[in-house]
Every structure is written in C-alpha cells, then in structure tokens.
Design a protein that fits this description.
Length: about 400
C-alpha cells in the first residue's frame, strides 16, 4: 500500500486523547499519509482540508471493500447494510426514506421538547454541587431525544450506551464486540417485530410501513437503519456537548464571552464543532480504482480514512486553528462530513447543542472542572473523539 517515498506511521494509544497533534505532524509532512491504526489496520489517512473535502465528494472512493460480502445471517449483514455504508443507487434509496424526518423545519418542531428535557436534567443537577456532566447531561439529553423520535423505550438507554461504546471502540475484545453487536441486533429485531404488530407515531413505525408496503427496505436494511439512526443520532451530540463544555472551561475568556453575549450561541456551536470534532474521522472508504489525492497515488483496493478533525485544524483553511475563537467564521468545517454522506442529523445536533449549552450557562453561574484536566480520560476510539466522564463543580 505504501508509496516508495512515504514512511508508514504507527499510531499509538496517545492518538485517542490528542489526535490533533498527530494530524498536524502528518500534515506537515504530507496531507495524505499511510498509517497503522491502534489495533493494527493499515490505511491512508487524509489530514489536509482541501484533500479531505475532495475525497469526501469523490465517487471513486467507495464504501464497499472489494471481495467482502457479509454472510446473509451474520451480525455484519444485520447491522452494516445502512446508508453510511452504501454507494449510489442504494444510498439514495435508503436516505430518502428518512430524509424528511431530519429537515431543519421538522427538527425545529422538536425545540419545545428538547428544551423541556434539558430543563429537567438541569433541575436534577441543581441539587448537587458536583456532577459528571457527561452522565448527567450530555448523554441523557440526545439519547432521550433520538429514542423518542425513533419510538424506542428510553429505559433501555443504558444498554445502548454500553453497546454503542463497544461498537465504536478500538480496544474491545473480539468476543465482547460480537456479544454487544449481537445483543443490539437482536434488540432491534424484537422491537421492530413489536412495532409491526402495534405501530406507533414514530420513525421506526414509518420505516416498517415503507418496508412492508413499498418493499423499499430488506429486513436487514431495516435493522441496520435503526442501528445507524440510534448510534449516529446520539454519539455526535453527546461528545459535542461534553467536549464543547470542556473546551469552554479550558478557555475561560471565550466562556466569559459567551456568557456576556448569549446571542453568539449559533456561531459558537459551529466553532465548537470545528474545534472539538466529536467525530474524529469518517468510516472507511476504499479506492474502487487508482486515485491521486494530495500528490499521492492510492491503488485500487486500498482503504482510506478522512480525518475530519485534521481537516478542521488545517492552517491553510482556518487561521490559528488550535485557538478556540467563538467569533470565528467556521463555515465550511467538515465536522458533519461533506458530499452525499453529509450527516443527516446535523440540524438536530446543532439544535440540541445550542439549547444544551445555552441553558447550562444560564442555570449555573459558575462551572469548573472538579479534577485536573490532565486526568480526564478519552474513549479508546479512533472514530469518536469523546470523554469517558466530565466531573464538574456547579454553583448557582
């Protein structure tokens, strides 16, 4: 895979906590470089903004690995046949079934409910002087919203958190991954069967109707869609809220600026998306034919990852990129991707983050870290860049 003049860099566990410095080092050498990920898989990693944007829109970079086909009854067939893993024309067929539910106008109708959930969580937190902001606020808000939207019992959210963490982890043992992925697939099979018997006013019931009446989805595609919507529907926002608040706490001048000018929240969320990058890189693509990107020839069959967090801190696109600046024009950031796989839930993630951060700062006049910043632990995932916990002190 490696071009003759390019050395392969092996990424260690430090990549989980600080992918930004790794990307900066790689980008300084070349914006497209071969790496070995923690866990041992080799891939091309794209860290330059222009190269990332081009790659995300390049149809020659396919979502299908040549020669790989999941067994029809395997866990991979049950969970992998969703739109994020699909190329045209399947991608368009799958995406159009859920597109209407996530338009900006539809999402705005959720504002009162998101505001109410946020207020309830903050009320619970107000009885304590210390809390894990991730467990008490950043996780339950988006998981409750997506569960209600899909028609999933919110009481099962702790199971989802465990399963999701395993599925996006680079450190999970194979048998644990298999067990948790299987548990999630079986859960959705049973839930969808129950909704087929008793449909509700929710997105999963609507997808079942599409499956049964129009034959637009196979049964495995239906389970895969439910899996994707649940995991993608909360992971990005959980980490945006938690990591975004941490970034504000570590940049007190910007935190004070936002407190003084609450109307900055829209632009602030865009800058936080660029700065904290809750999704570190995309899922894998594969070169369907030889492709040249950033002066490097990628051979047919080679895997490719686009480092969204690397692109968003490329100084060629964003001046002084390692500085948090809530007044910056962050338009064009790639936190939600680009091209046909641009994040369907971007309007929902933005709305939840705006409501969550605004309400948090309005409710508590003082928020500070309850532990040294260097002691915070990051999840062992190259896909998701997120904290394991965020202990904070709170005061009215």
């Amino acid at each position: 895979m490696t071009a003759p003049d390019l050395a392969t860099e092996r990424l260690g566990a430090d990549y989980f906590a600080d992918p930004y410095s790794v990307h900066a080092r790689l980008r300084a050498r070349r914006p497209v470089t071969p790496v070995v990920l923690p866990g041992g898989m080799g891939t091309w990693l794209i860290t330059g903004y222009a190269e990332a944007r081009a790659a995300l829109a390049d149809p020659r970079l396919s979502k299908h690995m040549p020669g790989w086909h999941p067994e029809p009854d395997s866990i991979f067939a049950a969970l992998d046949l969703h739109m994020l893993n699909s190329d045209p024309p399947d991608h368009e067929r799958l995406r159009k079934l859920v597109n209407k539910a996530f338009t900006a106008r539809r999402v705005q109708r959720l504002r009162p409910r998101i505001t109410a959930i946020t207020a309830g969580l903050l009320e619970d937190m107000s009885t304590r002087t210390e809390a894990d902001l991730l467990a008490s606020f950043a996780f339950p808000l988006p998981i409750t919203v997506i569960c209600e939207l899909l028609g999933i019992p919110a009481g099962d959210r702790d199971d989802f958190r465990t399963w999701s963490a395993t599925i996006v982890s680079n450190a999970a043992a194979p048998e644990v991954f298999q067990a948790h992925a299987t548990a999630m697939a079986r859960y959705f099979v049973a839930l969808l069967a129950a909704k087929r018997r008793e449909p509700g006013d929710d997105l999963l019931s609507a997808l079942i109707a599409a499956r049964d009446e129009e034959d637009s989805l196979s049964e495995n595609e239906l389970v895969s869609m439910a899996f994707l919507l649940l995991v993608a529907g909360h992971e990005t926002t959980v980490n945006l809220i938690a990591s975004g608040v941490l970034a504000l706490l570590l940049n007190p001048a910007e935190l004070a600026r936002l407190r003084a000018e609450p109307a900055l929240i829209g632009g602030a969320v865009e800058e936080l998306l660029r700065y904290v990058n809750p999704v570190n890189h995309t899922t894998f693509r594969c070169a369907a034919e030889p492709v040249e990107i950033g002066g490097v020839r990628i051979s047919r069959g080679d895997p490719v990852l686009v480092a969204l967090s690397g692109a968003n801190r490329d100084p060629a696109r964003f001046g002084d990129p390692d500085r948090l600046d809530l007044g910056r024009d962050s338009a064009g950031h790639l936190a939600f991707g680009h091209g046909i796989h641009y994040c369907l839930g971007a309007p929902l993630a933005r709305l939840e983050a705006e409501i969550a951060v605004s309400a948090l700062l309005a409710r508590f006049g003082s928020i500070s870290l309850a532990v040294p910043a260097e002691s915070l632990r990051w999840r062992p995932s190259t896909l998701i860049h997120g904290l394991e916990s965020l202990p904070v002190r709170l005061a009215p």
